[in-house]
Amino acid sequence: MHFFLDFSTSIQTLLVIVIFGGGSIAGLYLVRKWVPAQILREDHEVAGYTFGVVGAFYGVVLAFVIVAAWQRFERANTKAQAEALALTNLYSLSRAFPEPIHDELVSAVHFYADQVVHHEWNQMASMEFEKTLDGEGRLWRLLLSYNPKNAVESAALSKCMDEMDMLSDARQLRYVYYHEDLPSVVWLVIYAGCIITIGFSYFFGSRRFRQQALMCATFAVLIGLTIMAITELADPYQGAVTVTNEPFEFVLTMINSKEPLVHWAPSVSTGNQAAGASPGNQAMIAAPQAATREPNRSP
Q1: Is the separation of the CB atoms in 139 and 164 below 8 Å?
Q2: Triad 281, 282, 287: Cα angle to 5°
Q3: pLDDT, mean of residues 262-268
């Protein structure tokens, strides 16, 4: 169902209704055509117990998978925010350095955020992203080549190195979450269980075909919607519900406006463009820290 990621949520829902609902009704029609309803009614008791066991097992499997996919989505979102927060802290710490290193560091941070917002996120949405070290490497080279002149600059440089470690780790994990999918065996269990569970719903002979067709279609659509949700959450950077790039847009806005103190609260992206946002609406607050403070002097 990964082709669903190319459509909006409403189109995905419509496709689920047509494919799962229509497919289940077609399957029921074929079973009724080959097996008389009277024979099915004679085996209601056995079919009921078997269907209960199969349905319960498949329900537990879907529950575990959707929770795992949600947690994976949350981790991807958290790491995207951590990456943007590290950039924010680097921009704040740049005030501790003299010219021209200050302007060079601000320019490097701006370049990194601009690359993420206007290039990398779109490439991840279209599955065309190839990891590069242009922005990250520029920051590392700039910081590693600088020789601090005093204790304040030494402390600021040390803190910048810590932030770069956090940024590099978060960026690497962003690539991992973009590149990796749920294990293939999990998808096998999901699809095989879907076919088996829906198939068992045919082993009941209702007196009226329309009533049973409606029940089977509703049951199949419910399963289809659950699989659709798993597919969306399993790919944090593709589809209609994605991790947003708002944290990085916030960094760009902060640099362009030269704000010393900023507050930002993420939102969930529901568009087709890949991006990363916290479904839990967690708030990220970035406040620059003064590299040194003037001591209080008594008159």
Answers
A1: yes
A2: 135
A3: 39
